Each structure stands twice: as C-alpha cells, then as structure tokens.
Amino acid sequence: MILKRIEILHRAGICLAFSLAILIAPAGRAQDKPYFVTYSHDLEEQGNLEIETKSALAQPDGGGRFGATAMELEYGTRAWWTTELYLDGQATGSDSTVFTGWRLENRLRPLMRDHAVNPVFYVEYENTSGADKTILEFVGHDGQSDLAASNAQLRREHQHEAELKLILSSNLHDWNISENFITEKDLSHAPWEFGYAVGATHPLRGAASSRECTVCAERFIVGFEGYGGLGDTFSLTMRNTSDYLAPLIGWQLPRGVRFSFSPGFGLTSTSLARVYRVGVAYEFDQVGSKIGDWLHGSHGGGR
Amino acid sequence: MRKQIAILFVMLSLAAAAGALSSSRWKQIPAKDHARANPLAGDSEATAAGAVVYREHCQQCHKANGQGDGHKRPSLSSQRIRGVSDGDIEWFLRQGDLGHGMPSWSSLPQAQRWQLVAFLRSIQ
Q: Which terminus of chain A is less hemmed in, N or C, by CB atoms within 10 Å?
C-alpha cells in the first residue's frame, strides 16, 4: 500500500517538476478565469503565449487512482482568435505512465464589440488514445467506468474526434457568467455526443491596491462550475450521464503566474465521486513580436 | 468528413471577415458612456493603484510611460487621448479594439478600469 502511494507520488513529482520549470521562466502575465472545463470569452492577447498545466486527480470505482495532466500552449494569433495545442499524459497507480495524445483547438470571437452575451466559436481536433484521463469535458454517456480499465487495454482504442463548442459569456458587475454547449463526434464512427458546462466567477475584491501585493483580496477569484454529459444522437437523455459541481479558486500572482484549484463532486452514480483539479499557468508577453523583431534583425526592442 | 471540414472552413472564414470589418472605435462611443465621469478622479490612491494595474496589463504593449511604439501600439498621452472624456477611455478599455489587436478589458473589475483611467490622466 505504501509502495503504491510512493509510486503515485513519484509520478506526481514529475508533473510538479515540469510545472516548476515553467515558473522559472522570465516574467509574464496571465489573466484568465480559474475555470477548468468551462470557457469564458476571454481570449489570449495578440502575440502572447500562455503555458498552462491542468491536472486531474481521481479514482474510479474498480480502477486505480490516477493523475492526468494536459499541458496547454495557448497563443493569441489575433485579439479575436486564439490557438491552442494540448499534450496529454497520465499516470495510474500500480499501472503505468503514458502519453495519451494531442489536441489542437481554435477559439474565434465573431463579434468585435463587448455585448451582454458574447459568443465564441470553439473548434477542436483530438488525436488521443482511450487512456486519456484529462477529463477536460464530459459528453454523451462518459462515466467513471471508461476510466477504470488498465492502461494497456485503454490504449488499444484510438480516438480521432472533432469537437465544437458554442461559448456564451457575460461580464456583469464584476461577475463572469459563462455557458458552453458542447458537441463531439468520433470521425471514424459513433454518434454525435453532447455536453454542457456552466460557470460563474467573481474577484474577492474589485479595486486594486496602491502597492503591488501577492496575497491580497483582489488577487483571488472564486466561483463554481457545473458540467456533464447530455447523451448522444442515439440516446438524447441525461440518464447514465456524468454530472459534476465544482467550486473554484484562482490566485493571480503579480509576476504573471496563476494557480487554480477545484474539487469536483460527482452528482450521479455514473460520475466519479470526486475529482481534484490543479492548474498552473504562466504567460509570456509578446512572443510573436519578439520573434518578428529577431527575424528582421532588430534585437534592441526590449518590449 | 468532407462536410465537417467544410463547416470548419466556413466558421474560420466568418470570423476572419468579422475581424476585417472593425472600424474606428472612438466614433462608436454611445453618448451615455461619453458623459460618464470617473468616480475616482483626483484620488491619489486610485492613481497609484492604476499604475499597478497598468504595469501588469498594459505596459507590455504601451511601454512604461505610455508612449507606445509609434506604430501598432499607440501613445496613450497623444493629443487625441487627451481630448476624449474619462467615460470614453473607460468604454474603450471595456470594449477593446479586437480588429486592431487591442483586447477587451471587460474582464477587469470596473473599479480597476476607473483606477487605470485615473493613472492614464496622470501621465498626460
């Protein structure tokens, strides 16, 4: 039992070391909400690159405890267009540590003005194995039984999926309220699957302090998110779907680092009982401009 | 498969077209936003807090004293900015100018946007 725990801790340590390596980079900035599943209409600033790790820790009934991490490279192609590459992996107790695939997503904001409700189109292509346990969304009848088999069995399944989301998001009186409608399709077979995510966040304090601070109320954002499956085209029902409710807390440090944490609680017997999520993000300022300056031989920009 | 690729292409094209349609923001400010006064105007604490917010969110593009780069990142102490109302600046921060690379700062709490306006006035 102790050896098992040490093994899990060792694998978690590798994930943590990677996260710390991100922190040792030059100063930058990050400002997103602490959502893990829900998207708001915040996009990456043009030319900025954010690196974020989102980890999920859980244990399905009849399966081993696992820790899965998605490393996210998010680039602001335009102020209205963000591109992201995800690299996924996981470690399961008494089993193995595996790379589980990659995903490429684009988020596009079609309206150039801020409205009461702001739509964003989300388009993603996934090339992952069945062993992917990052659980960044739940669709169809996804449940804990999908996560319980051994990695060797799960890796035999390959998923080539397209995912579309309609993101609706509002900023109102310092609240952010976001709703996502998700549809996913395996490109080789299987029906369209549907899911949802909703969330709300609010900073602990609106006004900034007149001195730079690290542990002060305006640096913390709290909220919650709820997410789950809505069945598929064969069975458009909420029976045998996973649903979760998860409080959130985000801590925005002055030098561009953001930590977020969320314990998720399963609401149905199909759901995992608990999912603990941890996120670490770091933003590199104006990477696009710096590369452009370098390519054009202007090294003295210092932006 | 072809149908799905076609849907993706149409969505990307629509978003690109929307980006190209953005025009000058200052001409679009509603009268009620133009008339809004900064509730934190003249407050030295708010100006100092605005400087902190500026360093964190704006300096990367507009430089330390708001002079910009003379090209895509405009000066924030230009004649044009000095001539607009506090309400205009707060509206512009909230809306951004996505078509020209300026993000929307509606995600910042409103108090921080007014603190930022107070700081911007102090460097003009």
A: N
Please indicate if any CB of chain B lies within 8 Å of the CB of A116: no
Q: Inform me whether the C-beta atom of residue B50 falls under 8 Å from chain A C-beta atoms.
A: yes
pLDDT digits (tens, 9 = 90+) for A111-163: 998 999 999 999 999 999 999 999 999 999 999 999 999 999 999 999 999 99
- The architecture that CATH gives domain A2-295 is Beta Barrel (2.40)
Residue-range domain boundaries for chain B: 23-122
Contact A281, A32 (CB under 8 A): yes
Which residues of chain B does A80 touch, with a Cβ-Cβ cutoff of 8 Å?
15, 18-19, 98-99
Locus of tokens 């680092």:
A257
What ipTM does the predicted assembly reach?
Answer: 0.82
CB A163 within 8 A of CB A97: no
pTM attached to this predicted model? 0.85
A227 vs chain B: nearest CA distance in angstroms? 22
A106: amino acid identity, one letter: N
Which of A29, A31, A210 is closest, CB to CB, to B48?
A210
A44 vs A58: CA distance, rounded Å: 30
Does the domain spanning B23-122 belong to CATH 1.10.760.10?
yes
Q: Minimal CA–CA distance to A78: which of A43, A30, A114, A113?
A: A43
- Subunit contact B69:A303, Cβ cutoff 8 A: yes
Whole-Å CA distances, A276 to A10, A135, A154, A261? 18, 11, 22, 8
Asked whether residue B20 carries a pLDDT value surpassing 70, the answer given is no
Bigger pLDDT: B19 or A53? A53
Contact by Cβ (8 Å): B40, A9: no
Burial of B122 (0-12, 13-18, 19+ CB in 10 A): middle
A26-46, pLDDT tens digit by residue?
A: 444 445 799 999 999 999 999
Of B15, B49, B99, the CB nearest to A210: B49
Q: How far apart are CA A289 and CA A301, in angstroms?
A: 9
pLDDT in tens, A69-107: 999 999 999 999 999 999 999 999 999 999 999 999 999
